[in-house]
Amino acid sequence: MEENKTAANFIEAEINKDIANHVYSNDRVLTRFPPEPNGYLHIGHVKSICLNFGIGEKYHGETNVRFDDTNPTKEDVEYVNSILEDVKWLGFKWKEPVHYASDYFPELYEFACKLIRMGLAYVDDQTGQEIHDTRGDLEHPGKESPWRNRSVEENLKLFQEMKEGKYKDGERCLRAKIDMASPNVVMRDPVIYRILHATHHRTGDTWCIYPLYDFAHPLSDALEGITHSICTLEFEERRPLYNWCLQAYEGKEKPRQIEFARLNVTTMITSKRKLRKMVEAGLVSGWDDPRMPTISGIRRRGYTPESLRHFCDLIGVAKADNMVDVSLLEYCIREDLKAKAPRIMAVIDPVKVVLTNYPADKVEYVTMENNPEVEAMGSRQVPFSRNIYIEKEDFMENPVKKFFRMTPGKEVRLKGAYIVKCDEVVKNEDGSIKEIHCTVDFDTRSGTPGADRKVKGTLHWVCADKAVDIDTRLYDYLIPPDDTDDGRDFMEKVNTHSLVVMHSKAEPAILDYKIGDRFQFLRKGYFIIDKDTTEGHIVCNRIVGLRDSWAKIQKKQDKDK
User: Fold this and answer.
1) Positions in the chain short of pLDDT 70
2) Domain segments of the chain as ranges
3) Fewer CB within 10 Å: N-end or C-end of the chain?
4) Terminus-to-terminus CA distance in the chain, angstroms?
């Protein structure tokens, strides 16, 4: 391997030490990403994926994907497929083949038998509740099981009978024999095998006993030749158990566990259990609902893999848990799309404007840049006629101070077209606005000398005669950004008004795009065409608005220094 690379974080510093000390043959580096296929991955997993695969790439090593499929009652092939798709979408490639903890069930069973023969494991007849009640706490030692000192022969016989299906679920279990007085409660004879008569999605009914994660994980790492097992911080107290289980493995090179702080983002729930609860309660349309913090939901919302990887680069790798403001994530997608996304005009909440002095039968075309920051994107021709739509919020009959958009008696520029003056407001019987009448100053068309005349407001618009009807989905956070632990269940805090669907109008250029294409609706934000789109019915999801609150946060932080 090449000379040690400069460490970007404390994990890489530890890997550099191992390379310098030639801990692993050929100074190799092999990491792994080990999700449990019991739900869809969320934003927190993005950090783990980027970290594990990023280290593999940096050190010219590789990364395994291994599914922790040791609990058949919660796991499904649907989740396996979604996880693999997420990893690929983020731009990473795992070392083939895909691994499963279930690949190693025979070896794990033999490892358990070996611990029994070493006098380090025993079959316990206590119930799960009894085991919990006798474990003790930080101030009190645990109480030893009455079956803790069974003979090796009896334990082997009972464990074999457990495997043969002679006992009911929960009737017996296999526990590690460590220390019931250990100051680390995790080490107080943890359960390492339990009876579970359930059909496994890969092994069928071959097994009715399944290893616990704390036992299966370190030994699976060892069997695969993993060098660095990078886990989130909650596994720090379980590291002694990780190392203890490796006693059953005789190989010279054993994996090393290193912990880092998990990713927490304001407004985002990073618990598969809680996310599943929202899906099952119908609060969202599914795991890939664009409001969900799942990778599939974020992808459907319109985020790019580049923006998520940049986000992980910016937050770095820490040893202590912290909360990242969601505005940083939004900043990353804006930065990524700024030079990628073409601009088109769409009116989200339309009101009709009639240009009374414009010929009724005339349609002309104005030239618009597809992206003012990227000249290579070129330009397009946009239709303009007597009837147009503007945003309702861009008109105010009785304007407040510093409102520089359309108001009676005032002029505004229609982007790329003319300066117009509002003359009259026509209302419906209920007092709502039916249409707004304006007159055009024909000497002010964009690109002509008269266009130099200055007015304070510039509005986007859509030609009513050529407009394309679309649905725009405007998303808000499921959980408020300033959420605090006030004792309420998270389900009580979910924003049930987090989706608003608007019937909008877009310029004809939107017909040139397909499902999955992203663009900026001028002045309104970045959008993506959703998979619910059908022929004749376009659905667009708002990815993110244009206001960059992260920049304001940074500016305030710099000011407070």
Assistant:
1) 1-4, 548-561
2) 10-260, 350-460
3) C
4) 43
Q: Is the dihedral of CA 20, 23, 25, 30 positive or negative?
A: negative
Cβ atoms within 10 A of the Cβ of 281, count? 10
Among 194, 239, 262, 380, the active-site one is 262
Are 461 and 389 in contact by the 8 Å Cβ rule? The answer is: yes
Tell me the per-residue pLDDT of 28-64, one tens digit each, with 9 for 90 and over. Answer: 999 999 999 999 999 999 999 999 999 999 999 999 9
Say whether 262 is catalytic.
Answer: yes
CA distance 533 to 471: 9
pTM tops 0.70: yes
**Was domain 350-460 assigned CATH 2.40.240.10?**
yes
175 in active site:
no
Residue 434 catalytic? Answer: no
Catalytic residue (choose from 5, 14, 28, 36): 36
Both tokens assigned to 146: 């009455």
pLDDT tens digits for 186-238? 999 999 999 999 999 999 999 999 999 999 999 999 999 999 999 999 999 99
User: What is the CATH code of the structural domain delimited by 10-260?
Assistant: 3.40.50.620
Question: Positive or negative, the Cα torsion across 412, 505, 541, 333?
Answer: negative
| Coil, strand or helix at 366 | strand
Catalytic pick among 150, 188, 272, 518: 272
Asked if residue 176 lies in contact with residue 244, where contact means CB atoms within 8 angstroms, the answer is: yes
Q: Match 């990815």 to its residue by tokens.
A: 543
